Amino acid sequence: MRISTKQIALGVLLLLLMGYLCGTIVWSAHRINSTRCVQMEIVIIDSLERSYVSCAELENLLVRQGLYPVGQTLHDVCTQEIEDAITAHPMVRKAQCYTTPFGTVEVRLTQRVPIMRVVTEGESYFVDADRLQMPIRESVTTPVLLAVGAINPRMACHELADMALWIKHEAYWSERIASIHVTNPRYVYLVQKPDETKIILGDLTNYKGKLRKLHRLYTKGFEQIGWRTYKEIDLRYRGQVIGRKTED
After folding, report:
1. Is the pLDDT of residue 24 over 70?
2. Cα–Cα distance, 37 to 82 (Å, whole number)
3. Closest CA to 105 of 187, 19, 37, 203
Protein backbone atom coordinates (compact mmCIF):
# COMPACT_ATOMS: atom_id res chain seq x y z
CA MET A 1 0.00 0.00 0.00
CA ARG A 2 1.53 3.30 -1.09
CA ILE A 3 1.52 6.26 1.30
CA SER A 4 0.78 9.53 -0.40
CA THR A 5 2.67 12.76 0.14
CA LYS A 6 -0.48 14.24 1.67
CA GLN A 7 -0.63 11.48 4.30
CA ILE A 8 3.05 11.96 5.16
CA ALA A 9 2.54 15.71 5.56
CA LEU A 10 -0.48 15.12 7.79
CA GLY A 11 1.52 12.71 9.98
CA VAL A 12 4.36 15.18 10.35
CA LEU A 13 1.89 17.93 11.22
CA LEU A 14 0.32 15.78 13.93
CA LEU A 15 3.73 14.95 15.40
CA LEU A 16 4.65 18.64 15.49
CA LEU A 17 1.34 19.49 17.12
CA MET A 18 1.79 16.82 19.79
CA GLY A 19 5.33 18.05 20.45
CA TYR A 20 4.06 21.61 20.81
CA LEU A 21 1.35 20.56 23.25
CA CYS A 22 3.77 18.53 25.35
CA GLY A 23 6.24 21.39 25.41
CA THR A 24 3.52 23.83 26.42
CA ILE A 25 2.39 21.59 29.26
CA VAL A 26 5.95 21.16 30.55
CA TRP A 27 6.64 24.89 30.29
CA SER A 28 3.38 25.78 32.03
CA ALA A 29 4.04 23.34 34.84
CA HIS A 30 7.55 24.74 35.32
CA ARG A 31 6.23 28.31 35.26
CA ILE A 32 3.51 27.55 37.82
CA ASN A 33 5.92 25.71 40.10
CA SER A 34 8.38 28.61 40.07
CA THR A 35 5.69 31.28 40.59
CA ARG A 36 5.71 32.77 44.08
CA CYS A 37 2.60 33.14 46.20
CA VAL A 38 1.82 36.84 46.32
CA GLN A 39 -1.58 36.67 48.02
CA MET A 40 -3.52 34.53 50.47
CA GLU A 41 -7.29 34.74 50.10
CA ILE A 42 -9.67 33.17 52.62
CA VAL A 43 -13.35 33.09 51.65
CA ILE A 44 -15.91 32.26 54.36
CA ILE A 45 -18.81 31.19 52.16
CA ASP A 46 -21.51 31.47 54.82
CA SER A 47 -20.21 34.65 56.49
CA LEU A 48 -23.54 36.44 55.96
CA GLU A 49 -25.35 33.76 57.97
CA ARG A 50 -22.89 33.39 60.86
CA SER A 51 -19.59 34.92 61.99
CA TYR A 52 -17.97 32.41 64.29
CA VAL A 53 -14.44 32.74 62.92
CA SER A 54 -12.61 35.53 61.06
CA CYS A 55 -10.18 35.47 58.16
CA ALA A 56 -7.56 37.19 60.33
CA GLU A 57 -7.83 34.46 62.97
CA LEU A 58 -7.29 31.75 60.36
CA GLU A 59 -4.34 33.56 58.83
CA ASN A 60 -2.74 33.86 62.28
CA LEU A 61 -3.33 30.14 62.79
CA LEU A 62 -1.40 29.38 59.59
CA VAL A 63 1.41 31.73 60.61
CA ARG A 64 1.77 29.99 64.00
CA GLN A 65 1.92 26.59 62.31
CA GLY A 66 4.46 27.74 59.71
CA LEU A 67 1.99 27.23 56.86
CA TYR A 68 1.38 30.82 55.73
CA PRO A 69 2.16 30.63 51.99
CA VAL A 70 2.90 34.22 50.92
CA GLY A 71 6.47 34.43 49.61
CA GLN A 72 6.84 30.72 48.92
CA THR A 73 6.88 29.20 45.45
CA LEU A 74 3.67 27.42 44.57
CA HIS A 75 5.74 24.25 44.27
CA ASP A 76 6.55 24.49 47.98
CA VAL A 77 3.02 25.29 49.11
CA CYS A 78 1.27 22.22 50.53
CA THR A 79 -2.41 22.94 50.00
CA GLN A 80 -3.40 19.75 51.82
CA GLU A 81 -1.61 20.81 55.01
CA ILE A 82 -3.25 24.25 54.85
CA GLU A 83 -6.64 22.64 54.29
CA ASP A 84 -6.14 20.23 57.20
CA ALA A 85 -5.03 23.00 59.57
CA ILE A 86 -8.07 25.16 58.83
CA THR A 87 -10.49 22.22 58.94
CA ALA A 88 -9.14 21.39 62.41
CA HIS A 89 -10.35 24.76 63.71
CA PRO A 90 -13.32 24.09 66.03
CA MET A 91 -15.61 26.53 64.18
CA VAL A 92 -14.86 25.23 60.65
CA ARG A 93 -16.97 22.53 59.03
CA LYS A 94 -15.27 22.06 55.66
CA ALA A 95 -12.42 23.77 53.81
CA GLN A 96 -10.87 23.52 50.36
CA CYS A 97 -7.47 25.00 49.45
CA TYR A 98 -6.02 25.47 45.97
CA THR A 99 -3.56 27.63 44.03
CA THR A 100 -4.02 29.77 40.93
CA PRO A 101 -1.50 30.33 38.11
CA PHE A 102 -1.26 33.98 39.15
CA GLY A 103 0.26 33.35 42.56
CA THR A 104 -2.81 33.26 44.81
CA VAL A 105 -3.48 30.58 47.41
CA GLU A 106 -7.21 30.51 48.08
CA VAL A 107 -9.14 28.77 50.83
CA ARG A 108 -12.93 28.47 50.72
CA LEU A 109 -14.66 27.25 53.85
CA THR A 110 -17.99 26.84 55.62
CA GLN A 111 -18.60 27.09 59.35
CA ARG A 112 -20.21 24.62 61.71
CA VAL A 113 -23.92 25.04 62.46
CA PRO A 114 -24.99 24.61 66.11
CA ILE A 115 -28.45 23.16 66.65
CA MET A 116 -28.48 22.64 70.43
CA ARG A 117 -26.64 23.74 73.55
CA VAL A 118 -26.08 21.06 76.17
CA VAL A 119 -25.64 21.94 79.83
CA THR A 120 -24.85 19.19 82.33
CA GLU A 121 -23.53 19.28 85.88
CA GLY A 122 -19.96 19.06 84.67
CA GLU A 123 -19.78 20.64 81.22
CA SER A 124 -21.42 22.74 78.53
CA TYR A 125 -21.08 22.47 74.76
CA PHE A 126 -22.96 22.77 71.49
CA VAL A 127 -24.02 19.93 69.20
CA ASP A 128 -23.85 20.85 65.51
CA ALA A 129 -25.91 19.82 62.49
CA ASP A 130 -23.49 16.94 61.85
CA ARG A 131 -24.27 15.62 65.36
CA LEU A 132 -20.79 16.40 66.66
CA GLN A 133 -19.74 18.24 69.81
CA MET A 134 -18.82 21.88 69.26
CA PRO A 135 -17.16 24.09 71.90
CA ILE A 136 -18.81 27.12 73.48
CA ARG A 137 -17.51 30.37 72.01
CA GLU A 138 -18.48 34.01 72.54
CA SER A 139 -18.85 34.53 68.79
CA VAL A 140 -21.59 31.87 68.62
CA THR A 141 -24.66 33.95 69.40
CA THR A 142 -27.21 32.06 67.28
CA PRO A 143 -30.22 31.10 69.45
CA VAL A 144 -30.54 27.32 69.66
CA LEU A 145 -32.51 24.78 71.64
CA LEU A 146 -31.25 24.19 75.19
CA ALA A 147 -30.84 20.67 76.60
CA VAL A 148 -30.28 20.38 80.35
CA GLY A 149 -29.79 17.56 82.82
CA ALA A 150 -28.34 14.06 83.03
CA ILE A 151 -27.07 13.96 79.44
CA ASN A 152 -24.06 11.96 78.31
CA PRO A 153 -22.27 12.79 75.03
CA ARG A 154 -23.74 9.80 73.21
CA MET A 155 -27.31 10.78 74.08
CA ALA A 156 -26.58 14.40 73.16
CA CYS A 157 -25.15 13.56 69.73
CA HIS A 158 -27.73 10.93 68.82
CA GLU A 159 -31.22 10.91 70.36
CA LEU A 160 -31.29 14.56 71.47
CA ALA A 161 -29.62 15.83 68.30
CA ASP A 162 -32.23 13.98 66.24
CA MET A 163 -34.99 15.58 68.30
CA ALA A 164 -33.44 19.05 68.07
CA LEU A 165 -33.20 18.79 64.28
CA TRP A 166 -36.78 17.54 64.05
CA ILE A 167 -38.07 20.39 66.21
CA LYS A 168 -36.04 22.90 64.21
CA HIS A 169 -37.77 21.85 60.99
CA GLU A 170 -41.26 21.64 62.49
CA ALA A 171 -42.68 25.16 62.10
CA TYR A 172 -45.23 24.73 64.88
CA TRP A 173 -42.86 23.37 67.53
CA SER A 174 -39.75 25.33 66.61
CA GLU A 175 -41.49 28.50 67.75
CA ARG A 176 -42.74 26.97 71.01
CA ILE A 177 -40.12 24.64 72.48
CA ALA A 178 -37.55 26.47 74.60
CA SER A 179 -35.68 23.57 76.20
CA ILE A 180 -35.30 19.82 76.69
CA HIS A 181 -34.85 18.49 80.24
CA VAL A 182 -33.47 15.04 80.97
CA THR A 183 -33.94 13.67 84.48
CA ASN A 184 -32.94 10.22 83.24
CA PRO A 185 -33.37 8.43 79.87
CA ARG A 186 -36.87 7.34 80.92
CA TYR A 187 -38.04 10.77 82.02
CA VAL A 188 -37.61 13.55 79.48
CA TYR A 189 -39.77 16.64 79.28
CA LEU A 190 -39.97 19.79 77.18
CA VAL A 191 -40.61 23.36 78.31
CA GLN A 192 -42.73 25.60 76.10
CA LYS A 193 -42.52 29.32 75.50
CA PRO A 194 -43.66 31.75 76.76
CA ASP A 195 -45.36 30.40 79.89
CA GLU A 196 -43.12 27.40 80.61
CA THR A 197 -45.79 24.75 80.15
CA LYS A 198 -44.21 21.34 80.76
CA ILE A 199 -44.69 18.54 78.19
CA ILE A 200 -43.75 15.19 79.73
CA LEU A 201 -42.60 12.64 77.15
CA GLY A 202 -41.24 9.95 79.43
CA ASP A 203 -38.64 8.23 77.27
CA LEU A 204 -38.00 9.32 73.70
CA THR A 205 -39.87 6.44 72.07
CA ASN A 206 -42.19 7.83 69.37
CA TYR A 207 -41.74 11.44 70.49
CA LYS A 208 -42.69 12.61 66.99
CA GLY A 209 -46.03 10.83 67.14
CA LYS A 210 -46.69 12.16 70.65
CA LEU A 211 -45.97 15.76 69.67
CA ARG A 212 -47.98 15.53 66.46
CA LYS A 213 -50.95 14.23 68.44
CA LEU A 214 -50.56 17.08 70.92
CA HIS A 215 -50.37 19.57 68.05
CA ARG A 216 -53.72 18.33 66.74
CA LEU A 217 -55.17 18.58 70.23
CA TYR A 218 -53.88 22.12 70.66
CA THR A 219 -55.37 23.30 67.37
CA LYS A 220 -58.71 21.48 67.74
CA GLY A 221 -59.48 20.05 71.16
CA PHE A 222 -58.26 22.99 73.26
CA GLU A 223 -59.98 25.69 71.25
CA GLN A 224 -62.68 26.23 73.90
CA ILE A 225 -60.72 26.08 77.17
CA GLY A 226 -57.24 27.03 75.92
CA TRP A 227 -54.11 24.94 76.47
CA ARG A 228 -52.52 27.53 78.77
CA THR A 229 -55.02 26.35 81.41
CA TYR A 230 -52.61 23.46 82.06
CA LYS A 231 -49.26 23.61 83.79
CA GLU A 232 -48.28 20.12 82.66
CA ILE A 233 -49.22 17.98 79.66
CA ASP A 234 -48.37 14.33 80.21
CA LEU A 235 -47.87 12.16 77.08
CA ARG A 236 -46.38 9.10 78.76
CA TYR A 237 -49.47 6.93 78.56
CA ARG A 238 -50.47 5.32 75.30
CA GLY A 239 -53.63 6.78 73.81
CA GLN A 240 -53.93 9.43 76.54
CA VAL A 241 -53.09 13.07 77.00
CA ILE A 242 -53.28 14.09 80.64
CA GLY A 243 -53.44 17.77 81.53
CA ARG A 244 -52.68 19.07 84.99
CA LYS A 245 -54.04 22.51 85.72
CA THR A 246 -52.07 25.41 87.02
CA GLU A 247 -52.48 26.48 90.61
CA ASP A 248 -54.95 29.27 91.25
Report:
1. no
2. 14
3. 37
